[in-house]
Amino acid sequence: MSRFAAVVAAAFILLGQVLAGPAFGASGMPAAGDRLALVIGNGRYENVAELPNPVNDARAVTAALKRIGFSVVEGYDLSFTAMAEKLKTFGRAAEKASVAVVFYAGHGLQMQGTNYFLPVDAKVQRERDLAYDAISLDMILREAEPARDLRIVILDACRDNPFAARIARAGGTTRALQVSEGLAQVGNVGRDTLVAYATAANALADDGSDSHSPYTTALLKHLETPGLEINLLFGRVRDSVFEATAGRQTPFTYGSLGGDPFYLIPPSDVSGTRAPAPGNAPEREALFWQALESSTEPADMLLYLKYFPDGPHAGEALRRLQGSGDRGKPEVAALPNTPEIPAAEPAPALPPPAPPRKPTATTTPTPAIVSIESDVPLAKDTILQRQTKLRERVSGAKEPRCATIMERAQLGEGLTDADKSFLRNNC
Q: Which has more confidence, 202 or 375?
């Protein structure tokens, strides 16, 4: 068994049931469990320029859906009455269907957040005319709602729309226009329902210069791929359109799907027949792991862990996933001829910090001795020097009183003005 066949076979096991092909009863209505589609293509508009591709797009999608087992309610270039009748027929059949798909190609626009799709005989002149001359997306969703398992609405209807310009001219400039080109975002949709736009909301899609629009071309490319889960299918459609239009157009999907995978074409085993649905969860897990047992691909291990996080092989899947991550780590090659960077020279050592200064011992200050001649305090050594000189002078003096006054002064006694005068004149 090839790895691809094993993976898709294991993925189908999770579906739990086979989406069988159509079978009709005596009344011609699809039997219970059938897959049903409504396909409409409107291009030959009576009151505006024709669109060349919608009918081609719709016919090609109809053929593809029939090849993969859908019974199709189809209509091309429909008037309002014919379009409403096709929708009612589809709605009655959807009550017995497991899967309901709607594909519409043609003009569409929005008013006050509601999306409308135009029949070929539309004569829309005012905003309110849309309620009488067009089919709303809400009506389509209501008719598809009875399908038990899955509802898909595919809208290639965001083409350049002349009806919006016509309504704008009729509305004048006195009030804000509430009709816009492109389609509005889809708010609340029912359970297991997917709405796919050919481009983003409020944007225009390309009608294409070939026989099909870029969106329908991408849809036809991937619609018949076996084992392609529905979210992945529309993801690939988006990528193909983005590439084909050089990024000018990006399809968008709105929806509320459950945790179980959905397939338009269930995966098959190697013999080409559809894989059986096992009866219980342990059996599904065992068959799933059997299909992946020899695989070491990270995507396979992640797929197992997604659906069986507590399965008996979860530990082994984790080990393989971690091992594949280790093998995938790139080795860093050495750079050739890389010059060795020389080591930087050490910076010169800083001198050691100076030792802290020792505090200078404080001594009791010596009483200042005032010079006789200037009354300026004298340092101790100066006082001793002068004292010696004074004694020499006094010893040679004529008046003994000079020595007495000087000694008194050296002892710190105060001198009178008379003593000072005597010393100046006689000593």
A: 202
Identify the three-state secondary structure at position 117. strand
Beta carbons of 399 and 427 less than 8 angstroms apart: yes
What number of residues does the chain have?
A: 427
Residues 247 and 392 in one domain: no
How would you classify the pairing of strands 97-105 and 34-41? parallel
What is the CA angle 42-47-52, rounded to 5? 40
Shared domain check, 242 and 127: yes
Give the pLDDT confidence of 205-250 residue by residue, as tens digits: 766 667 899 999 999 999 999 888 898 899 999 999 999 998 888 8
Do residue 247 and residue 381 come from a single domain?
no
Question: In which domain, by residue range, is 378 found?
Answer: 369-426
User: Quick one: which of 17, 61, 253, 28 has its CA closest to 151?
Assistant: 253
Write out pLDDT tens, residues 291-301. Answer: 667 777 776 77
DSSP string across 195-207: EEESS-TT-PPP-
Tokens (6 digits) for 128: 């309110």
Look at residue 94 and tell me if it is in a domain: yes
Do 164 and 116 form a contact (C-beta atoms < 8 A)? no
Nearest to 227 by CA among 51, 6, 2: 6
Instruction: Round to whole Å and give the CA distance between 60 and 83.
Output: 19
Claim to verify: residue 68 and residue 187 sit in the same structural domain: yes
Q: Among residues 234, 265, 296, which one ends one of the domains?
A: 265
Tokens linked to 410: 């050296």
Instruction: List beta partners, residue 117.
Output: 108, 135
Closest CA to 301 of 273, 272, 321, 324: 321
